[in-house]
Design a protein that fits this description.
Layout (H helix, E strand, L loop, with lengths): L2 H19 L6 E8 L1 H7 L15 E7 L4 E17 L3 E22 L3 E23 L3 E25 L4 E29 L6 E22 L5 E5 L1
Antiparallel strand pairs: 1-2, 1-9, 2-3, 3-4, 4-5, 5-6, 6-7, 7-8, 7-9
């Protein structure tokens, strides 16, 4: 009587082992993560904070082998903002355009059933632009001053990650990075000023326009460590 249940359990065990061995060793999983600090603060009512933690890489994607954990990681962040203020005499328009990219090698491995650690080496590229135009229009002078500031950076460095598995498809995690960057900070100021003056030959009131342009470039390097204060909500598929 005992042999039949024992034989059934043994057969089921062998079938499961056979299925596990026949699993495709080339199988890969994708991980799509988005920064979740603001979302979690709203859901759990942590309250407002003047020192909001953010990361330029709002969206991250990685694809890794299920057997070895080897793969690649790509992060991207883009923001655009435009605002205008002033009155009939004075007007200021500002446009902010920032793009952040990173890509590199990635390795993930499980620490038990719930925790997943990872590390990688990234190449990073930053492109930040600030364009401000100030216009003045009065009875005595008119002027348009445009200031364009650009900050471009190229660098590389290591990245460490740690995730906790909430469900089979949803994980929450954080990261720390140690990036070296070479930066170029440039500024261009172009001014066009028209003033009301009296023509010494005719005695008529005329507007004289003067145009000037100034440029400056600064180069610097920095090694920056970012602590694991960012939370990512990640979907595995």
């Amino acid at each position: 009587m005992i042999k039949k249940p024992f034989a059934s359990i043994l057969l089921a065990t062998l079938c499961m082992a056979s299925q596990a061995q026949s699993k495709d060793p080339k199988a890969k999983s994708s991980y799509l993560g988005v920064q979740a600090n603001q979302l979690l603060r709203q859901l759990f009512n942590f309250g407002s904070s003047s020192s909001t933690v953010t990361t330029p890489y709002l969206l991250n994607y990685s694809r890794n082998s299920d057997s070895t954990g080897l793969g690649f990681n790509v992060g991207v962040g883009y923001s655009f903002d435009q605002f205008k203020n002033g009155d009939a005499v004075f007007e200021r328009t500002t446009k902010l355009n920032d793009l952040f990219l990173r890509a590199g090698f990635d390795r993930k491995y499980w620490l038990g059933r719930k925790w997943m650690a990872g590390w990688g080496i990234d190449v990073v590229l930053d492109n930040q632009k600030n364009n401000t135009t100030t216009k003045t229009d009065s009875d005595f002078n008119k002027s348009t001053i445009t200031t364009t500031s650009k900050l471009n950076a190229l660098g590389f460095g290591p990245r460490l990650t740690l995730h906790y598995r909430i469900t089979d498809r949803i994980l929450i995690g954080t990261e720390c990075t140690y990036y070296f960057k070479a930066l170029k900070d440039s500024e261009e100021i172009e001014s066009k000023i028209s003033t009301r003056e009296v023509d010494p030959f005719t005695g008529q009131v005329i507007f004289i326009t003067r145009t000037e342009k100034e440029e400056s470039d600064d180069k610097l390097k920095k090694l920056q460590f970012n602590v694991p204060a960012i939370l990512f909500l990640t979907l595995k598929f």
